[in-house]
Write a structure and sequence with these properties.
By secondary structure, the chain is α+β, with helices and mostly antiparallel strands. It has helices spanning 2-42, 56-68, 78-99, 106-119, 124-133, 138-158, 167-183, 215-232, 238-248, 267-273, 309-312, 345-360, 366-373, 395-402, 434-464; strands at residues 45-49, 52-55, 198-208, 253-260, 280-281, 286-288, 291-302, 326-338, 384-388, 413-415, 418-431, 467-469. Helix content is 50%, strand content 17%.
Length: 481
Amino acid sequence: MNRFKQIALLAIFIGLGLFVTSSFAQDAAKSNTVAESKIRNIDGVAAVVNTGYVTRKEIDDRIAALKKQGVKLPEDGSERKAILDRLILEKIQLQNADQEGIKVTNKELDKIISDIAAKNKVSLAEFKAKVATSGTSFERYKEMLRDEILVSRYREREIEGKIKISDAEVDNYISDRTRAMTSGGAQRSAPAAKGELEEIDVAQIFIPVDAGAGAGAQADAKKKAEALLRDARGDVDFLQLGAMAAKENPKIKFQELGYRTPDRLPQLFYEAVRNTGSGQVANAVVKSPAGFHVLKVLDRRAAGASPPPQQATASDAGSAAPQNIPITQTLSRHILLRSRAGLSDQDAERRLQGYRDQVRAKTADFAELAKKYSEDGSAPNGGELGWMGPGDLVPEYEQAMNRLQIGEVSNPVKSEFGWHLIQVIDRREGQLTVEKQRQFARAAIREKKFEQAYQEWMRELRDNATVKILNVDDAASSAPR
């Protein structure tokens, strides 16, 4: 009987234990649910990034800043996801920079802020007041600026320092660019087979004229372009003809665009040279909103084909005419927003318009905006691209740059790389010497390699991080679900 009582009591205790355990498990589950709910809705965490997190308020703040710049956001809410992705990458870079011991001291930060105020020709107190009127506290502004500098320094160390450019790469680049000047393009590539993708090497002489110029100015520019077209049909080197025209009138520009598939040529250009053979000029002058263009097809080849032996091994061409050609060089800087998913053309254009308005109103410095927002290798230098001559930049950029006065800021300009905001710093007359060609070639190669390395680096950062998305759809003020 006593044994039966002991077993009965043990069963009761076990039952109570199971009940308590079950209750505890349910309470724990409820507690976890409540904790996650708190993370999602009370603390407002949108994503956990390694040992840190991105809050929904950070997303809200970015959206508010875009709206203040006049950017029209998509109504489907997709912009929140794009901004979160950007914040996640920034957070990863900041964490890695901290682990690598990259710092920005308070003294450095104060000096940078003082320089920004000085460039805007305001006192530090006035600058603080302007920051406050923008809706951001000065302390928050300092925090954001510190983060931007840390990311920039980390990115520069991880990418810029690892890009190597050989002398052979520079030699090949110069040979390809100067082929038409040194050899006249006498030897041509094999044409593309029927149905095969083609690359066209087009050169232009550009006579600029404002769209709003009077009929007289338009007529004079067209007359000059037609005269150059007639001369180009003769036995002359096209780019040397352009050089002579530019010497007479520095506003006239000439350039070789390099091998491009039809989709990478301006549509007006492609339509004009669609049926033009290698070594021939277009039948007529091309009119664009920027002015008049005289075009010549230097070569046509199958896409990806190697240049003819004479072009690839122009070892005796380096001492020819290029260094003696007088050119107008321009020192400019830009803010580049690269074309990418989640950033429409309208959004990019509106963002750049916002930056332009700030610079024109003298509430922001162009170089500082470039350091913060430009998405290319020139960002650490305030967007400065160095001294560039004809043909060193993509046509859309160069044409917009050539219309600017010194100190003037352009409207947003679209190129194959994305959207640009451009400011001309200075101009000078120079010669296209071999040394300068090598400098420009190295800069162009570095920019191309930077873009490739940057994209790969960003993918690696994201792949190697531990990221958990919790709640991106709701604003920070949303009620808990």
